[in-house]
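User: Please fill in residues for this 246-position structure.
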């Protein structure tokens, strides 16, 4: 295993934390972004408790193109060039389209889709120079099938995979892979925020009969970021308990 610098956006959230831990377990130097100051000290203390000491974090608004560029330059100065990028930061602003506002639309498109441009752009040159890179975009089952109440989110998540497929073709001969993972409903705060009655109806539609675990998504991220996964590119790998089969 080659030790690399892995940058995970939104790495202090439910799926993000599991991704950081798994990549750290694999021996990588993990760097995460966080958007709101407040819980980073407790998060780092937790990580230390698990025995992970080489985990770094940077306050960065992933919707801000210049801030992302500056942060990647700072990581290069402080630690080194990013070899693995996991675009994981995401939010929801659910509601029927009739009720959705332009603010809801902008917030979701900027955080979930513009962020992918903002982060990938500054790390790509270094990957091209190194002749190696792994980019994993965390999309959603709802980008594949659409979801009542998630016009904004479904549009952003589907857009992420368009980005994946196009960039994958451009960098395939340079040792860089670009892939999408489309998780189904995973037991995180985001899913627990769905009203209980609605959530129970969704769980009833999952053939495996339960929500997914963040660690299950993290294991897949870890594989796609490994040297052995060099022949997988432009893929959209679903992990949804059978809720949506393509
Ligand atoms: N399909 C068809 N009709 C539906 C429906 C559905 N899935 N859900 C609700 N409706 C109907 C209701 O029965 C209601 O009909 P009537 O007006 O005839 O009574 C109408 O649509 C309006 O429904 P609500 O009153 O419930 O509308 P609301 O605006 O209060 O709530 C909602 C809508 C916020 C979208 C709510 O249904 C909801 O939270 N849905 C879940 C959305 C979801 O899955 N979010 C995922 C979050 S987690 C995530 O995003 C991670 C990931 O990647 C998987």
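Assistant: Residues filled in for all 246 positions:
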């Amino acid at each position: 295993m080659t030790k690399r610098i892995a940058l995970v956006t939104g790495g202090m959230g439910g799926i993000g934390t599991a991704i950081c831990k798994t990549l750290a377990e694999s021996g990588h130097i993990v760097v995460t972004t966080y958007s709101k100051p407040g819980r980073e000290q407790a998060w780092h203390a937790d990580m230390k408790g698990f025995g992970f000491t080489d985990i770094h974090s940077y306050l960065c608004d992933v919707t801000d193109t210049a801030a992302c560029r500056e942060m990647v330059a700072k990581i290069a100065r402080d630690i080194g060039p990013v070899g693995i990028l996991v675009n994981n930061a995401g939010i929801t602003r659910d509601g029927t389209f009739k009720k959705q506002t332009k603010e809801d639309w902008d917030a979701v498109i900027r955080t979930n889709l513009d962020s992918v441009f903002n982060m990938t752009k500054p790390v790509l040159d270094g990957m091209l120079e190194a002749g190696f890179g792994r980019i994993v975009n965390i999309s959603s089952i709802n980008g594949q099938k659409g979801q009542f109440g998630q016009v904004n989110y479904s549009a952003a998540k589907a857009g992420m995979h368009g980005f994946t497929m196009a960039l994958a073709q451009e960098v395939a001969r340079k040792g860089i892979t670009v892939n999408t993972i489309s998780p189904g409903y995973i037991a995180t705060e985001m899913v627990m925020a769905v009203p209980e009655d609605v959530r129970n109806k969704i769980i009833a539609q999952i053939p495996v009969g339960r929500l997914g675990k963040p660690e299950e998504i993290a294991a897949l991220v870890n594989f796609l970021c490994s040297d052995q996964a060099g022949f997988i590119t432009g893929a959209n790998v679903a992990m949804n308990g059978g809720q949506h089969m393509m």
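For context: The CA atoms of residues 29 and 211 lie 30 Å apart.
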